[in-house]
């Protein structure tokens, strides 16, 4: 029966091949979501191994962040942009989950990320969540959680209102624009250390605003984890 099922799967893949979400090439049976070539060639930051990395430095003097890392570098017209587009706009939540699992395997043995008590994804505005059907940052968080065995908490931080357009704003203006967007509820579980998770990190203004809200309810150690970082 397994042999027959295998033949049928192979036949179906010839007609409806599964494609790599990074480069668009057909996947073989042993590949899932991304081809082996792309997995080896993706632009990994390895920031989790460098405490004073470039992303972490973006928050210095702005908000008290314990540590910060991102899995990949984001380059326009590159493979990472293709992946992020599929994740956010083409109803492919499994991409976020798979990337979370991949990065989780690296963070599992890395201080201080593996010591967090909760994983908190940056929330979407309710209208955008309804339109998209899922929060892409939460899918990434779910993948991380599966490997790290740390719970995902989605009822602590919420988006109170939609932000104004960030286009043409300076970094300080972006933070002021975002500062009142996010609210945090009472910290009933008395979390002290969390992973604050986002998809693509550019200026970090959104994460600064989220961290500011979480610190107001007594969360002292906030560790930033992103899928991709735009240098």
From TrEMBL:
The cross-references to SUPFAM superfamilies, in alphabetical order and at most eight, read: PRTase-like (SSF53271)
Pfam families from the entry? Pribosyltran
Source organism, top-level taxon: Bacteria
InterPro entries membership: ComF/GntX_DNA_util-trans, PRTase-like, PRTase_dom
All residue ranges annotated as the Phosphoribosyltransferase domain in the record = 137-225
Q: Which family does it belong to?
A: Belongs to the ComF/GntX family.
Q: What name does this protein carry?
A: ComF family protein
- Taxonomic source organism: Pedobacter cryophilus
């Amino acid at each position: 029966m397994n042999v027959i099922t295998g033949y049928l799967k192979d036949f179906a893949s010839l007609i409806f091949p599964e494609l790599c979400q990074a480069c668009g090439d057909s996947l073989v049976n042993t590949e899932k979501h991304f081809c082996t070539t792309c997995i080896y060639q993706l632009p990994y930051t390895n920031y989790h191994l460098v405490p004073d990395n470039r992303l972490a430095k973006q928050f210095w003097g702005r908000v008290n962040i314990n540590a910060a890392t991102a899995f990949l570098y984001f380059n326009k017209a590159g493979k990472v942009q293709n992946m992020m587009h599929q994740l956010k706009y083409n109803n492919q939540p499994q991409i976020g989950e798979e990337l979370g699992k991949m990065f989780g395997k690296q963070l599992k043995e890395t201080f201080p990320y593996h010591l967090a008590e909760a994983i908190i994804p940056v929330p979407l505005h309710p209208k955008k969540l309804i339109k998209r059907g899922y929060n892409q940052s939460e899918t990434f968080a779910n993948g991380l959680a599966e490997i790290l065995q740390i719970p995902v908490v989605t009822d602590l931080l919420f988006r109170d209102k939609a932000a104004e357009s960030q286009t043409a704003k300076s970094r300080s203006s972006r933070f002021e624009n975002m500062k009142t967007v996010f609210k945090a509820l009472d910290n009933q579980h008395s979390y002290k250390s969390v992973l604050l998770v986002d998809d693509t990190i550019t200026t970090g203004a959104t994460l600064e605003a989220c961290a500011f809200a979480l610190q107001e309810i007594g969360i002292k150690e906030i560790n930033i984890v992103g899928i991709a970082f735009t240098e």
